[in-house]
Structure formats: C-alpha cells, structure tokens
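re the bet — no i am not wrong, look at it urself. input seq straight from the record:
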Amino acid sequence: MSAHVLAWRAVGLRAFEAGVAAVRPDKLVMEAVAVTGSGEAKHLLVLGESIPIPGGVSLIAFGKASILMARAAERKLGPALSRGVVIAQPSAESCPERCRDLKSEGEFCENMIYVF
C-alpha cells in the first residue's frame, strides 16, 4: 500500500476516533450541567437554563449509558446531588460511589439497580 493511502487511512482513523469521543455520554453530561450559587440560592444550569435547587438534585437514570452518565453527574454536581436511582444492564461498569447494589437481594434478575 502506498504512503499516500496509509496517510489518508490514518487521517480517517483520527477523525473517526474524534467523532466517537465527542459523543461520549459522560462527556456530554459534564459539558451540559453545572451548579451555581450556594445554600438556598443554589441553581442547576442545564444547557444554559437555570433551575433553583434549594433541596438538591434527584437523579433518575436508566438505559445503556446510565452508569456513565450518573457517574458524570455525580462528579459534576458534587454535594448538590442529594439522591437518585440508576437502572442498567449488568456490565463491567461499577456503580457511582455513593450507591449500593440491590441485585443481591434477589428482587431484580435482569437489571442492576443502584440507589443512593
């Protein structure tokens, strides 16, 4: 294969990898949400919209990307994240730091359910 073809192949591979990285669910959450203010004046910013959150944020996540997205939300929101539930198919992913695995209680066979 010519050097010209190999160079174009490398460019194509870099473009593909950059495209995949740009739409990672955790990256999108990290870019979309923020917390401003403090105490009773705390606000959640979601894509530029400001929502008062005096009692904290409750998170509900389900589906294929829910664990990655919940982890990102926990990192980004910090103490403003007060509680939540994540429902996901079993995988090698670990749950967010503050949750516990309820599957061992025998009620849930197909999904992993995390509550924090």
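see?? The two ends are 55 Å apart (CA to CA). told u. also Helices lie at 3-22, 25-32, 66-77. so pay up
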